[in-house]
Amino acid sequence: MREPNLCFPSQSRAAVCITSALYDRRALDCTATLPLVNSLTHLAYLTSTSPRIREILCLDGGLEKLVRILSQTSSRSDRLTLWKWTLAFQSIVNVGVRGTEQIRTKVVDTGVIPFVLTILGNFTKSYEIINGKKEMKRGKHSNAQQVSFCLLMAEIP
Predict the structure, then answer these.
(1) To 10 degrees, the CA torsion angle through 63, 96, 35, 20?
(2) What is the tens place of the pLDDT at every residue in 79-89?
(3) CB atoms within 10 A of CB 104
(4) Which of 83, 90, 81, 141 is nearest to 112 (CA)?
(5) In CATH, what number does 1-111 get?
(6) Distance CA 11, CA 121 (A)
(7) Where are the domains of the chain?
(8) Alpha carbons 104 and 92: distance in angstroms, whole number
(9) How confident is the model over 82-138, as pLDDT tens digits?
(10) Can you spell out the DSSP letters for 40-92?
């Protein structure tokens, strides 16, 4: 069965794609990974540079579609799929960080917070693992330094 998508004869393409000069909401509905990655690459650039694109993305349902792309990405082993997830997340972050207060509120309302919490939780786990390995390498020497520092701080009135 053919993947559902629209054709774009004005650019001689088989799919509607977002370019650095053109934003089209229909490009986010693409089911094929390669044109979607192409569109998301341009969208990440557009959301970082254009306040108008950030506003339109919130008004036309593009933000909700980006969140759906994040939630529907299940296979994390495929490089293009990982790239698609990263670019969609980058676009959402650009909209949330660089947008107005109303746009930021809309980003929170679309359900991005669980993704941010997951990323921060994974970062915290990785940070603890890395620091644990550093502590193991330092050994007892670092523990003695920590004890002496605590004693020094306890003596300060």
Answers:
(1) 120
(2) 888 899 999 99
(3) 15
(4) 90
(5) 1.25.10.10
(6) 43
(7) 1-111, 112-157
(8) 10
(9) 899 999 999 999 999 999 999 999 999 999 999 999 999 999 999 888 888 777 776
(10) HHHHHHHHHH-HHHHHHHHHTTHHHHHHHHHHH----SSHHHHHHHHHHHHHH
